[in-house]
């Protein structure tokens, strides 16, 4: 213990201590007031007097609701009465303009009872603490969190811009505008930014105003084509040139001059005036995509540096979303171009059917899928109608769709029946899955490496027999509408999805009256109208939905006959009032039939004399059709094909001529042996028949049936009969 320490200094005399306390209360930087039992003011320090905007004498002896008959002060008087009655302290948090300050502030008001030694309440004290800084910090944090949740909900640039404006107007600014560069951005780095002396063209993408515009006042700005030009050195141009956000006061001469006739500001905003302004570029990944303007009117507290940082943070989040949307739009355009290039460019020119089609890509959120369709001419004037759907979305699905369509065309060229064609297509999809699995093991596969399942519907229509043969690989069944208006789903045997492997496919054969309508489609057409997931087809058709979509499709197709283009539009309007969530492919075909006078059929014996008989019959028929110029070549073709059937095949032998868009010669027999074209040696007596047929005809081939095979050859018509 230090015995040499100076003794404690004596405290002030009692009267001095009382004065010191009064001075401390009077000069305390927090507003403090004391009220008696009747809730009337006894005394108040200087800060409370200043905040009230009244004199000290005007305050003394008055209740708060008598002094200032405003909402918060009426509430304060009520709270004071409650504290005097209960003897319990109360805290009230309010945000209002104090009369003596003239600014909106956040206040924490503490109402504390004053009690004597026995605990009786003699009055109360009111302490008003300015918590504006803390309040605004919480508001900014809440705004950042809310904006983060609301901005970027889609991959649409315009929608993202609107979300930025909607999340900040009112709470942060009186007027918000988001303007994008017309090309969607892409100016990266210093070299990509406009210079300080360059005018900038912007596209007004979104704008929001906290106060609804007065219809009788100045109208909205008229931006030609939604774009406007910012003059050099204007706030938008400077922000884009520097790539940095800027804060401006409305009383700056340059801002007053610019705001007077700035096309970036609607007339209604200019009429109320610009108190302060923030110009914040939308910059992300070294790319500037546009600009956000935040305006407060003169009667609103101007922006400060904290507000500038807040605007920069929120806008930076929006900029990332805008840039992601811009990149997605570019990739989507590439995928859509690829997909459309893989679909048939034209469907006209088929004599067996009249066709039309539609392809609708999915929404931006879902991405492009693998829906596809095709119409393939076959031998014997027949035609194949195909619709398929690859699981997944994006470039991988589009590429897989292209491979499947090419495979179907190749398999159709060898005239496989629908069930056999789907079996071979299933093998291909299985192989694709194995290849992608191997790529995944090697680390070379993309995100969609496992998406290899697909569905397909393959149907062949014969205008001579007027019969349709179809098989399905887990695909929605087609709709058949007969000329009398009866619409029904064809009950195809259920088949597995492509890629399952090892399971059989079965075909259904039905008679189709001339003028019937066939509708082939993907599940995206009907699933939007069904409950739950699935294709929206009826029970029993392989669907897990209630069938609302399928019933609506059937009713729409059963309407009185109309042009196919109109039918197609009616179907899409009825089932897809909004943009589909999944890709949609729709193929409509109205069947035609070949009249009996355009087809001639003869049964031949397996005797060599049948060759001459066949030649004569063909010559007579061509003369009847006015195709004498084709008689010589056709007789040669018939001679070779009939001779081969007699020598190498088995009866029954049938010869058929079809006059369609081409002259088709068919020879059918009971053998399943496939003919093979070979080059005969110089001294061989035979072996040149099929080579001769190939030289004389535009194309030829073989198709197999359950009872044998048919060899066909096709010649172009030189004269239109």
Describe this protein's structure.
There is one protein chain. The protein has 721 residues and is an alpha+beta fold. The protein has 20 helices and 27 strands. The strands form 5 sheets. Strands 6, 7, 8, 9, 10, 11 and 12 form a 7-stranded antiparallel beta sheet that branches. Strands 2-1-5-4-3 form a 5-stranded antiparallel beta sheet, with helices on both faces. Strands 13-22-21-18-19 form a 5-stranded antiparallel beta sheet, covered by helices on one side. A hairpin with a 5-residue loop joins strand 14 and strand 15 (383-390). The longest helix is centred in the middle third of the chain and has 38 residues, at 305-342. The termini are far apart.
- In percent, how much strand structure appears in the residues? 25-35%
- Number of separate strands: 27
Task: Give the radius of gyration.
Answer: 42 Å
Average pLDDT confidence is 84
Protein structure class: alpha+beta
Parts with pLDDT < 50 across at least 5 consecutive residues = 186-192, 214-220, 530-546, 680-686
Gross morphology: elongated
CATH superfamily of the largest domain: PPM-type phosphatase domain
By CATH, the architecture of the largest domain is named: 4-Layer Sandwich
* Tally of helical runs: 20
Helix percentage range: 25-40%
Number of domains: 4
Give me the CATH fold name of the largest domain: Phosphatase 2c, domain 1
> CA-to-CA gap between the ends?
133 Å
Biggest beta-sheet profile: 7 strands, antiparallel
Overall CATH class of the largest domain: Alpha Beta
Protein name: SpoIIE family protein phosphatase
Biased composition (Gly residues): 530-539
Region (Disordered): 207-251, 530-550
Domain PAS: 32-87
């Amino acid at each position: 213990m230090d015995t040499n320490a100076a003794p404690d200094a004596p405290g002030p005399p009692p009267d001095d201590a009382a004065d010191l306390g009064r001075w401390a209360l009077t000069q305390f930087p927090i507003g403090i007031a004391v009220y008696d039992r009747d809730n009337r003011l006894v005394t108040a320090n200087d800060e409370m007097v200043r905040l009230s905007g009244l004199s000290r004498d005007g305050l003394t002896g008055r209740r708060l609701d008598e002094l200032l008959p405003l909402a918060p002060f009426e509430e304060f008087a009520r709270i004071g009465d409650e504290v005097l009655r209960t003897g319990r302290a109360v805290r009230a948090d309010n945000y209002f303009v104090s009369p003596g300050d003239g600014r909106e502030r956040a206040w924490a008001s503490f109402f504390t009872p004053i009690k004597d030694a026995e605990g009786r309440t003699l009055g109360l004290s009111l302490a008003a603490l300015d918590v504006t800084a803390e309040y605004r910090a919480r508001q900014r944090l809440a705004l950042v969190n809310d904006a983060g949740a609301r901005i970027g909900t889609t991959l649409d640039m315009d929608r993202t811009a609107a979300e930025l404006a909607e999340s900040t107007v009112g709470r942060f600014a009186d007027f918000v505008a988001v303007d994008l560069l017309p090309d969607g951005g892409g100016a990266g780095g210093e070299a990509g930014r406009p210079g300080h002396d360059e005018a900038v063209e912007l596209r007004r993408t979104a704008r929001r105003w906290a106060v609804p515009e007065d219809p009788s006042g100045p109208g909205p700005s008229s931006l030609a084509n939604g774009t406007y030009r910012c003059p050099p050195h204007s706030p938008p141009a400077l922000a884009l040139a520097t790539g940095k956000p800027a804060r401006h006061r409305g009383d700056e001469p340059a801002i007053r001059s610019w705001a007077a006739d700035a096309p970036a500001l609607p007339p209604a905003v200019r009429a109320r005036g610009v108190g302060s302004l923030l110009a914040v570029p939308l910059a992300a990944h070294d790319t500037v995509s546009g600009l956000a303007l935040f305006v407060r009117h003169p009667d609103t507290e101007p922006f400060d540096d904290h507000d500038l940082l807040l605007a920069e943070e929120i806008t930076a989040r929006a900029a990332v979303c805008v840039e992601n949307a811009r990149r997605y739009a570019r990739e989507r355009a590439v995928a859509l171009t690829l997909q459309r290039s893989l679909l048939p460019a034209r469907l006209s020119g088929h004599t067996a059917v009249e066709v039309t089609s539609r392809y609708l890509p999915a929404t931006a959120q879902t991405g492009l899928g693998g829906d596809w369709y095709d119409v393939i001419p076959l031998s014997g004037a027949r035609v194949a109608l195909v619709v398929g759907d690859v699981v997944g979305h994006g470039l991988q699905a589009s590429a897989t769709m292209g491979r499947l369509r090419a495979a179907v065309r190749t398999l159709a060229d060898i005239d496989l029946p629908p069930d056999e064609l789907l079996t071979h297509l299933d093998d291909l999809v299985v192989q694709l899955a194995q290849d992608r699995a191997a790529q995944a093991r090697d680390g070379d596969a993309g995100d969609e490496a496992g998406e290899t399942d697909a569905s397909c519907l393959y149907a062949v229509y014969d205008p001579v027999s007027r019969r349709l043969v179809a098989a399905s690989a887990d695909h929605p069944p087609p709709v058949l509408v007969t000329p009398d208006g009866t619409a029904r789903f064809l009950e195809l045997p259920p088949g597995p999805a492509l890629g399952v492997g090892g399971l059989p496919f079965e075909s259904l054969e039905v008679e189709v009256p001339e003028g019937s309508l066939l509708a082939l489609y993907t599940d995206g057409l009907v699933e939007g109208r069904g409950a739950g997931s699935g294709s929206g087809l009826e029970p029993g058709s392989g669907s897990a939905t209630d069938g609302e979509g399928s019933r609506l499709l059937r009713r729409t197709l059963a309407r009185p006959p109309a042009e196919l283009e109109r039918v197609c539009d009616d179907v899409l309007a009825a089932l897809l009032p909004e943009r589909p969530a999944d890709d949609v492919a729709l193929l409509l075909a109205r069947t035609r039939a070949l009249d009996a006078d355009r087809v001639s059929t003869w049964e031949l014996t397996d005797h060599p004399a049948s060759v001459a008989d066949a030649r004569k019959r063909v010559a007579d028929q061509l003369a009847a059709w006015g195709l004498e110029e084709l008689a010589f070549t056709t007789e040669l073709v018939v001679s070779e094909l009939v001779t081969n059937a007699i020598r190498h095949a088995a009866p029954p032998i049938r010869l058929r001529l079809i006059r369609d868009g081409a002259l088709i010669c068919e020879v059918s027999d009971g053998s399943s042996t496939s003919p093979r074209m070979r080059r005969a040696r110089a001294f061989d007596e035979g072996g040149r028949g099929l080579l001769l047929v190939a030289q004389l005809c535009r194309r030829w081939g073989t198709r197999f049936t359950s009872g044998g095979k048919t060899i066909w050859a096709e010649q172009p018509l030189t004269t239109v009969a």
